[in-house]
Amino acid sequence: MEFTGKIIAVLPERGGVSRTGNEWKVQEYVIEDHSQYPRKMCFDVFGADKIAQFNIQMGEELTVSFDVDARQWQDRWFNSIRAWKVERVSAAAPAPGAPVPPPAPTAAPDFLAGDAKDDLPF
Question: Backbone phi, then psi, for 110, in 5-degree steps?
Fold first, then answer.
């Protein structure tokens, strides 16, 4: 799945040590789309290498590819939205859902040439 929008929050990095003794890091971000009624999504990037590779900054326009998964803990279910690819949106490309302006006319339409002498009966 994909979500395109602007990063509106960069949450603090969290980390720890797994039961097997391996160190881990995760960082969460909030992205908002540009629709008439903006939607927000909180997603995470797992692993110090991915966090550094993506280098997500506040205010950036991104397209985030992610997977959604759920897990159970103490009889409760939690969703996880994990990014696996991040692409910068170029400034020239319009945002999805944004209105596209019509092309500017290049020449006067043909019907205007003869309209000056035509009179309407009413």
Answer: -65, -30
